[in-house]
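step: validate -> pass
step: tokenize input -> pass
step: predict -> running
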Amino acid sequence: MSLSVKATVGCNLGCVYCYEGTLRNTGKLQTWELEAILRAMEEQYRIHKTPITLHGGEPLILPKDQLEVLFRKAYELAGQCSIQTNGVNIDDDIIRMFKRYNVHPGISVDGPWPLNKLRVGKDGLSGREATERTIRNIYRLKAAGIQPGLIIVLHRVNALPEPRQKLKEWLLELKGIGINSGRLNLAEIDYPEVADRFALTEEEAKEAYLDLARFVLIENDGLYWQPFRDVVDLLMGLGPGTCIFGPSCDYFNAVAERVINGDGSLGSCLKTAKTGHAYLRIEGQEPTSERYQALFATPQEYGGCKGCRYWKICAGVCPAEGIDGDWRNRSRYCEAYKAVYQLVEQYLKRLMPNIELVVDKPAKTWDDGWYERRSNRVNPPAVRWMSPQYTTDPSTWRGSAKQKERKQVDACQHPGGIQGSYHGDRPHGDHSDHADA
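step: predict -> pass
step: emit ->
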């Protein structure tokens, strides 16, 4: 869970797919009361001790003196702060504050122009000019010794085959300056007139995600882009790095993001505000699990997840991605995620046939084992047949390694105290289960 300070949902850009667009058009939550925000930050951090992020809208449209007050308060409370920004307004003053208050910036950009053209400029600033400023400021941050993270939204402008090649070239360019991670998010567009033109179809999203997963996980060293790295960890029972996977999000009371609004009130994740209504958080009210219980029991042809092999590591993904914009359904991009799960599972098992992944045991209930995976306490671990703790013949591939009980062989004592079929401290030979067979 994070503490997300959305002092304003106002923005200096007009991104055509922004999920806050309808809310912004109502005029709500665009003004702020600094003292009310500060009181809420102090109270919420005292209770929850969660990381603090300045979000929006666009937080860098706040006056610099007030922005510095918020950074200072976050630093006093938590020793650091994060910020998610489009990066257009970063200048020397902002960089100075980032350094002084240990601020970790995340930059929202969909690639160099024209891949970023859905992030439209306004107030006399063209989209191309805004994009060039953002890209320039990414390099500027690196030159100043500040490591930015990136969020890239995938749509038909940057993720179809031809522009995707340019996107991959840019990711390698970023790697060359030391930026090798971030998020590649499929666009959630619930405005029909925009979705018809710019949202990836389910098949296009699947093809794009498979291509990018291979690019990140297989074809290039040193790339750590999400959600692909998350999928590896999820399959091995090491827990997810982000909130979209797992049965933990109440659409009306999201536990992953505790929001402080500009008036100091508490809210929920604004991905739920697509109709223009921002839900307030009711303190003490526990999140509900009806969505996940229903998805687990509902056949896939009706928007559910019943019988899906990957339920344990997916749970239908974020409710804001629901099919037809309905939070009760599984993700509209189900096939794209499933294709990545299958790809990663295939490669892990090719490398390590003895690995035992979370999905090898079907879920018996909607929340089967979720707590253990979320807290990295899966027992036994996925690599148990590769560990002397569990077998006398640890191996990535030997069939004899997969035994239910550890055999104690009196005639052959391992020098380190582990009994088993060893000669010296390791098997000799290179192709048999018992080296001298």
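step: describe -> Residues 17 and 189 are 6 Å apart (CA to CA).
step: cleanup -> pass
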